[in-house]
Amino acid sequence: MTVAEAKAELRSRIRSRLKSITATERAAASARIGEQVRATGFWRAARTVLFYAPMPDEVDVWPLLAEARGQGKRVALPRFTTQARSYRAAQVNDLERDLVAGEFGIREPAAHCPELELAEVDLMLVPGLAFDATGRRLGRGKGFYDRWLAGFPGMTCGVALAEQMVEEIPVSGHDIPMRCVVTPAGVFRPQSA
């Protein structure tokens, strides 16, 4: 089996697992992940945090985003640029006024929100379909996050439900591992963080 075939098989398996999780279970697990993130030194130290707008099957990091704003942290979300077919970080100040439906129907910063250079971001919370304890991540297959992560100098932190953790993620040369993965059960730190 090729790496691409192994990834496709794992994506299918994880999507099936995720369908079996109720909204109540996902909310409880997301809340526990939020507690785990808040307890880390990298969260407390971060001045600028790049979040993501969660899709229905992803860990809900929205309460953390609101909390970060309340703590005086600068918050940003990915904004897709159609011309470059890639994401850029853009600062969000007002969750009502600053968000629009983006290229893929995902909430993202409106055009008036200022872009941030990745070097300005201290912490990036990263979604994925699956993770393993060594920090490897399986995305949705388009490679957007891996291309973005390749130039990111800050702390990368995958967030995952227990059902998204697997023994081993098949990897290609372009796959970028996380510096940590946070689950409801704890924080995996495969690399010095």
Describe what this molecule looks like in 3D:
The chain has 193 residues and is α/β, with parallel strands linked by helices. It has a single domain (3-188), classed as Rossmann fold (3-Layer(aba) Sandwich), CATH 3.40.50. It has helices spanning 3-19, 23-38, 41-45, 62-70, 144-149, and strands at 48-50, 74-81, 86-92, 99-101, 107-109, 115-116, 123-126, 130-131, 137-138, 155-159, 180-183, 186-188. The strands form 3 sheets. Strands 6-3-2-1-7-10-11-12 form an 8-stranded mixed sheet. A hairpin with a 2-residue loop joins strand 11 and strand 12. It is globular and about 45 Å long. The chain starts with a helix and ends in a 5-residue tail after the last strand. The relative contact order is 0.18. The model has no long low-confidence stretch (mean pLDDT 90).
List keywords for this structure.
alpha/beta; Rossmann fold; 12 strands; 5 helices; globular; 193 residues
CATH topology: Rossmann fold
CATH class: Alpha Beta
Question: Architecture, according to CATH?
Answer: 3-Layer(aba) Sandwich
- Widest sheet: strand ordering: 6-3-2-1-7-10-11-12
Domain module count: 1
Shape: globular
The tally of helices reads 5
Q: What name goes with the CATH superfamily?
A: NagB/RpiA/CoA transferase-like
Biggest β-sheet: count, sense, barrel?
Answer: 8 strands, mixed
Question: Could you tell me the radius of gyration in angstroms?
Answer: 16 Å
**DSSP summary, beta strand count:** 12
Portion of residues in beta strands equals: 15-25%
> Unreliable segments (pLDDT under 50, ≥5 consecutive)?
none
Mean pLDDT: 90
